[in-house]
Design brief:
eight-stranded mixed sheet; alpha/beta; seven-stranded mixed sheet; globular; about 20% strand
Length: about 425
């Protein structure tokens, strides 16, 4: 007979995503225990920028960490700059330690327990799973890029031989923020993500192939190097990687992988925490339905995986230098990767003048919308430009309708049409009906 579970949900990994999973379990009325060997707060290499949808998910658990509002994202390379502002509420720049402390306090207040231990083995049966000496009904693996749970559950996938290996390094500078945007400075080999996280603190995270030399890469970005010149460094650098992690599946029995442990492409779009929070919600909602969690995971990460994989391929190819010019020319494509709650596009003029003195102004009139069932209503025709010297071509005259039959003229019958179709010198085909030729 199986042992009685000690807890409903065992969360392995006490980072922001693990604490979010514990909060969601408590919100669903389940008991939760977080296994984490490190003390609170936990710091790690991170871009520290929360996209708007990540801030919305934090409000779901009544978590409101202090930080700096983020109005959008800017891509910078030499003298080229493309700015994409969020269409809705702002994001937030938050120190990793501040975010972790806020989540840990809220999880403790919600009744989630904490167990200081390290997972070294994992065993499960039809009724539960055991790890770190604790038996639970379900286990959520939230232990990051190099997940022990992923390896013990047999969910790791082989790494492609030619896959690009990218790493990240984060550094803080004591300097007042100069913008309310996350700036992505595009260098020759690496990208620098500059995020305001305090009144006098800016975080700089560099992504690129190993080894990532922070000083050398920043020196190759003149606009950013000028801003940071003379600013004291707040703390020692922190690194992470390789960033690309693959999984065969996200579930194995009663084990579910959440966050970076479930598979990761790259930090290029800054959506890691938003995706991890969304997966935590989906995992708790599908504890008894592994196939349902696989579908929810695929739906939550589809756009991220497609966009980020494409950008990484370009960033690691000879086309790397064309990314920022493309962001200038194609704003909607690059704005979609920022986790923005709405489309970010350039304003489109209501009317483009068609001559030197066009008299038509304003948008094209629309069909009125009234109550009742919707019916196909044709909008009134667009007024023509009447400016002298207009370059617009005149409308083509409509084709004349076919002439109607004159009074007294004979009707075209079937026999007449058959005679017209019969080749010359050949008798018409006899009718199959009796009494007719």
């Amino acid at each position: 007979m199986s042992a009685t579970p000690d807890v409903d949900v065992l969360v392995v990994g006490g980072g922001p995503v693990g604490l979010a999973a514990a909060l969601e379990a408590r919100r669903a009325g389940l008991s939760a225990l977080v296994v984490e060997p490190r003390g609170t707060p936990v710091d790690k290499a991170c871009g520290e920028g929360l996209m708007p949808r990540a801030v919305d998910l934090l409000r779901r658990w009544d978590v409101d960490p202090a930080g700096r509002p983020l109005a959008g994202i800017a891509y910078v390379r030499d003298d080229q700059r493309a700015e994409h502002r969020f269409a809705g509420p702002p994001g937030r720049g938050v120190r990793r330690t501040v975010l972790h402390a806020a989540l840990a306090d809220r999880a403790a207040a919600a009744g989630a327990e904490r167990h200081t231990a390290r997972v070294g083995d994992l065993a499960q049966d039809a009724d539960g799973v055991t790890a770190a000496g604790v038996r639970a009904r379900w286990l959520l693996g939230c232990d990051g890029l190099h997940s022990t749970v992923r390896r013990l559950a047999g969910l790791e996938a082989a790494r492609p031989v030619r896959a690009a290996r990218r790493f990240g390094v984060r550094r803080h500078y004591r300097v007042a923020p100069w913008t309310d945007l996350v700036e992505v400075h595009w260098g020759r080999h690496a990208e620098a993500y500059v995020t305001p996280v305090g009144a006098d603190l800016v975080g700089v995270a560099l992504l690129g192939p190993a080894p990532v030399d922070v000083d050398a890469e920043l020196a190759a970005m003149p606009a950013l190097a000028t801003r940071l010149a003379g600013a004291p460094v707040e703390a020692a650098d922190r690194g992470a990687g390789p960033l690309r992690q693959r999984t065969r599946a996200r579930t194995a029995g009663r084990v579910l992988l959440v966050g970076d442990a479930s598979g990761y492409v790259d930090a290029l779009t800054g959506e890691g925490l938003r995706l991890g929070f969304a997966q935590a919600v989906a995992a708790v909602a599908h504890l008894d339905d592994p196939a349902g969690y696989e579908r929810a995971w695929a739906a939550a990460t589809r756009d991220y995986r497609l966009l980020t994989s494409t950008l990484v391929r370009v960033a690691t190819s000879p086309l790397r230098g064309a990314l920022v010019p493309a962001a200038v020319r194609l704003p909607p494509v690059f704005a979609g990767g920022g986790g923005a709650p709405g489309p970010l596009t350039r304003a489109r003029p209501a009317h483009r003048p068609c001559g030197r003195a066009c008299r038509r102004t304003g948008p094209r009139p629309r069909a009125p919308a009234g109550p009742g069932p919707r019916r196909p209503v044709r909008a009134p025709p667009r007024p023509r430009c009447t400016a002298a010297g207009s370059t617009r071509r005149p409308a083509r005259p409509s084709a004349a309708p076919p002439p109607r039959r004159a009074p007294g003229a004979p009707r075209r019958t079937r026999r007449r049409r058959a005679a017209r179709r019969t080749p010359r010198g050949r008798a018409p085909r006899a009718s199959a009906r009796p009494g007719r030729p």
